[in-house]
Amino acid sequence: MITLKVLPRFGGGYMDITSFIRNLTVQIMTIAWLIFLVSWVIGWAIKGSPIPIHRVKRTGQTLVEDAVLAAFWLAMGSTIFAIISYITSNINQPMPPPPQP
Amino acid sequence: MNVLPLALNLAILTYFIGVLILALPIPYRQLKRWGIRLLSDAIMAAVLVSAYNIILGIGDFILNLLGYSWTGFMSWLTERTAILVTALMGLTYVTSWIKSLGYSMILSPLGLASSYITLALSAIRMMYFIASFIWNFRSELLALGLLLYSLPLRIGKDAGAFFIAASLIMYVGFPLMPVFVNIFQGATPQPTISSPVTLTCSIIDLGNEPIPYPVLRLYKEGSEIPIGVIKGDARGKVVLGDNLDVLPRNYTFSVEVLFMGYVFKPTPSIIRSGSGRTNYRLRLPNIIYQGGLAILLPSSLSVVHVKYLGSRLEVTLTKSGVEGGEVRIVKLASVRVTSLSINNASLQCSWSSWSWKGVQLSECVLSLGSLELDSTSPIFISISYTPREYPSPNIEERRIVCYESLVDIIMQYISIGIAYIYSFLFLPGVYLAALTTMAASLARVLGGGARLRLI
């Protein structure tokens, strides 16, 4: 049994490492949404900028594509993990008891 | 277990770090690829974490399918340990035995065999350790593997994959070890020298009474130099072998018996080792003995009957040849003869004394020719005396040590040691190496080979 207590960055008191990671995940998710927005905006800005260089436009396009893809996986995140645990819990049949040495 | 939720949360964290990297407004392809790599890692880790119980169950499932169990493996290990311990005990016994024979200089090859067997024993102990570790901690190993596997940024992915693979492969592989070892080892050799050759000889006189403290002299057939001089006990028993001698396996000795300063040829005068017979009755046909006094007869006289009366000895003889011959009466110097008569005629004897191996003896020679006896009628000799215990002569024993047999024993143990090294150290070692390789391959499948491609 591994239980680690860590000092959280926000709020007082101790919490275990699982909730710490969960908090961290939520923060990263929030930052990821923000960055997606920034990225999307920058991408469109570059794409729509009046610079007649094809390469620059393509960079903008790539940024927008990546940002949309990231948004998609971001939105799908919890669904994917739910699906995984749903499938494995369904195929997880009771196994024979282990033999005694 | 708290490790699994932790691992799952780490996988989710990895996933969102991947998404974050993917969403970064940096148009650098290599960086974006890292984002996708992390996404796939996270999904793979989540699948493995969720399949924790399935992975644990697969091991039992495969074992059941193959028909092998950990119970069988553990009893196999116990059996092999017992074989080794028996061999080691036998070796210790042989070593102490050879030491007691005074041949310490040839012990170093046995030390070699002993070190081989000890090495095999350590190998078994190591096997016990690894097996019981896998048996007891495989679920912990798997959980730890999953935790390492789901750490973000591929920090512990290789190690985690190896732990996961090892927990499965070792769990299934160990119970199969007996099959592997049995295929390659052939028969496990066992030491056969549990009991060395032992021969017991009972030395008896003409009337089948035991001769006390006889000295047996053994010769190689046709040789004049004795290869062994062995003293018997008070009941006339001489034991050859019995941890004191190393007798050759198939050998013929001719024997002589020394008693009261005389040398006798017993019947039978030949004994064999390795013929299956271990008890010999060696009869001395020329001597009648009782309580410290012996009558020695020439072969020209045959005995009709003998009476052992405690303090009197009565012998009836007939002449088989024309010549009279001599009858010798040998006694301990401490024995006092009260009367001696031949055909009821009392006789005075002149005793001459001498000492043989610390035993004081005196002897009287009766020349039958000079007594003018009737040649056809039987001769009746009667001696009354005070009987005495015959003392043990001060003779230096020479035990038989056959070098060839000794070398045979040593070589057998060395070859057993080498065979044990092969079947107890080498074969399980090879098998363990094979298992580790398999675990590494499976780890490659989990860690590197089976990468999901999402875009």
Folded structure, characterized:
The complex is a heterodimer of chains A (101) and B (455). Chain A is mostly helical and 101 residues long. Chain A has one domain. Chain A has two helices and two strands, in the order ββαα. A two-stranded antiparallel ribbon of chain A has the order 1-2. Chain B has 455 residues and is of the alpha+beta class. Among the domains of chain B are: 102 residues, Immunoglobulin-like, CATH 2.60.40; 76 residues, no CATH class. In chain B, strands 2, 3, 5, 6 and 7 form a five-stranded antiparallel sheet that branches. A five-stranded antiparallel sheet of chain B has the order 9-10-13-17-16, with no helix packed on it. Chain B has a five-stranded antiparallel sheet with strand order 11-12-18-14-15, with no helix packed on it. In chain B, α4 runs antiparallel to α8 and α5 runs parallel beside α8. Chain B starts with a helix and ends in a 6-residue tail after the last helix. At the A-B interface, α1 and α2 of A face α1, α2, α3, α4 and α5 of B.
> What's the helix-strand series of chain B?
HHHHHHHEEEEEEEEEEEEEEEEEEH
Domains counted in the coordinates of chain A: how many?
1
Kindly state the percentage of residues in helix of chain B: 40-55%
- Overall number of strands of chain B: 18
Termini separation of chain A: 24 Å
Determine the strand fraction of chain B and express it as a percent band. 15-25%
Radius of gyration of chain B in whole Å, from Cα? Answer: 42 Å
Mean pLDDT of chain B: 83
CATH C-level of the domain at 198-288 and 394-404 in chain B:
Mainly Beta
Average pLDDT reading of chain A: 78
Radius of gyration of chain A: 22 Å
What is the second-level CATH architecture of the domain at 198-288 and 394-404 in chain B? Answer: Sandwich
**How much β-strand is present in the residues of chain A?**
under 5%
Unreliable stretches of chain A (pLDDT < 50, length at least 5) are: 6-13
CATH level 3 topology of the domain at 198-288 and 394-404 in chain B: Immunoglobulin-like
Provide a count of the helices of chain B. Answer: 8
Helix-strand sequence of chain A: EEHH
Q: Sheet with the most strands of chain A?
A: 2 strands, antiparallel
Share in helix of chain A:
55-70%
Number of helices of chain A: 2
CATH superfamily of the domain at 198-288 and 394-404 in chain B: Carboxypeptidase-like, regulatory domain
